[in-house]
TrEMBL record:
Classification via Pfam families: FAD_binding_6, Globin, NAD_binding_1
UniProtKB keywords: Detoxification, Heme, Iron, Metal-binding, NAD, NADP, Oxidoreductase, Oxygen transport, Transport
GO terms assigned for molecular function: nitric oxide dioxygenase NAD(P)H activity
NCBIfam families, per database record: PRK13289.1
Annotated source species: Comamonas avium
Record's protein name: nitric oxide dioxygenase
Gene: hmpA
Function: Is involved in NO detoxification in an aerobic process, termed nitric oxide dioxygenase (NOD) reaction that utilizes O(2) and NAD(P)H to convert NO to nitrate, which protects the bacterium from various noxious nitrogen compounds. Therefore, plays a central role in the inducible response to nitrosative stress.
Cofactor(s) this protein cannot do without: heme b
Length: 397
């Protein structure tokens, strides 16, 4: 446990973290990923290059220091981290490695004058406390995943039963367990982890499940990213009949079980987990408005399927926006707009009723817009949900 003096020291480093946290975490990742092979597969190199991962960690470290007296102030952050860790199969032995590099980076970046032995000792204790919390929560999630019907621990082998191009950029992979057993009834909105060998190097990634649980299969829908090592590998090297190694579903961006009207707002490939939520909601006869903003109709994944679903379910309202192209003829029952979505458009597309549960996902600019629109429309904060595919970012300015 941290003592009072150690907590005070950690808090006293808040201004330093505010000013130099990103330099610190950038150095931390550079050191750790160049020297330690054991943790390399857990991190996506693109997120290092873009700085997204160091930024996310800097934000987390700063939040932790600020709330060291009362960790409830961290809100959702620990849950986000724990679910991400579980989907990538982070283990207790990874924590001392990360801890040692973090302390080394603190010393090297902030300098020996500021970072006395007492400061290192306080941060060491703070890190130890956090590690204990995460390790114990992750341990119980691993145990739960193993106990659930159709659940599993560690890696389970799945055969690619179907590989289907949704658009020129997004391909779906439907996976069946090689052992022929059941597949856990995961929650709509959750993701799985994949462990792959790409050019002889292990990589781990999570991908949202793009269909509701059916007890037999999993489906992911992957956008091929220009720099994406794993997404390119999946698109070009993985074929029907191949086997993928899968970690059990995790994630807490999940559909609530209320009967409140639902608003699903997606941009681009952000539609993937919302497809699972949509299927679940339709099965429960829940009134649903689904907004999908893409660059053009031919780059819109699940367009045909969505239109078919709307034809079958009168309580589903569809609104599509296309950034680049004039909208195609209004399909029956679907409202369509052209251009970059703005607040006025999204506002007009929300249902009149504001006591809704809203889930939004897309590129960060879209998420900022969606969050603002929902807030200004009076949707309670606790009923407005989002997540990030990669490292979390701040949405509020
Ligand atoms: N929650 C997350 O973490 C997500 C992250 N992404 C990231 O975004 C990247 C691009 O994803 P794509 O599917 O290719 O999306 P995209 O670049 O094709 O954009 C899709 C649509 O989002 C809307 N949009 C984009 N920026 C906007 C802004 N500033 N304001 C309002 N609307 C905006 C536009 O309608 C656009 O057509 C992905 O490669 C991924 O890295 C995408 C989806 C979810």
């Amino acid at each position: 446990m941290l003592n009072e003096r150690q907590r005070a020291i950690v808090k006293s480093t808040v201004p330093l973290l505010e000013a130099g946290g990103e330099a610190l975490t950038t150095h931390f990742y550079q050191l750790m990923l160049s020297e330690n092979e054991a943790v390399q597969p857990l991190f996506n190199s693109v997120h290092q290059q873009t700085g997204a991962q160091p930024r996310a960690l800097a934000r987390s470290v700063l939040m932790y220091a600020k709330h060291i007296d009362d960790l409830s102030g961290l809100g959702d952050l620990p849950a986000q981290i724990i679910h991400k860790h579980v989907s990538l199969q982070v283990q207790p032995e990874h924590y001392p490695i990360v801890g040692a590099y973090l302390l080394r980076a603190i010393r090297e970046v902030l300098g020996a004058e500021i970072v006395t032995d007492e400061v290192i000792d306080a941060w060491g204790a703070a890190y130890g406390q956090l590690a204990d919390i995460l390790i114990s929560a992750e341990k119980s999630m691993y145990a739960d995943n193993a106990q659930l019907e159709g659940g599993w621990a560690g890696v389970r082998r799945f055969v690619v039963a179907r590989k289907q191009a949704e658009t020129s950029e997004i391909t779906s992979f439907t996976l069946h367990p090689e052992d022929g057993g059941k597949v856990v009834a995961y929650q709509a909105g959750q993701f799985i982890g994949l462990r792959l060998l790409v050019n002889g190097k292990e990589q781990r990634r999570n991908y949202s499940l793009s269909q509701a649980a059916d007890g037999r299969s999993l489906r992911i829908s992957v956008k091929r990213e220009a720099q994406g090592v794993v997404s390119s590998h999946l698109h070009t090297q993985v074929h029907e009949g191949d086997v993928l190694e899968v970690f059990a579903p995790a994630g807490h961006f999940t559909l609530d079980d209320s009967d409140k009207p639902l608003v699903l707002m997606a941009a681009g490939v952000g539609i993937t987990p919302l497809m699972a939520m949509l299927e679940k909601a339709l099965a429960a006869q829940r009134p649903t408005t689904l907004i999908h903003c893409t660059r053009s109709p031919d780059l819109q994944a699940f367009r045909t399927q969505l239109i078919e679903l709307a034809a079958q379910h009168s309580h589903l309202q569809l609104r599509f926006s296309y950034e680049q192209e004039a909208a195609p003829e209004n399909t029956e029952g679907v409202q369509v707009a052209t251009g970059m979505p703005d607040a006025a458009l999204l506002q007009a597309w929300l249902p009149v009723q504001r006591d809704v549960q809203a889930y939004f996902l897309g590129p960060v600019g879209f998420m900022r817009l969606a969050q603002t629109v929902l807030r200004d429309a009076g949707v309670p904060k606790a009923q407005s949900h989002h997540e990030f595919f990669g490292p979390a970012q701040a949405l509020a300015a």
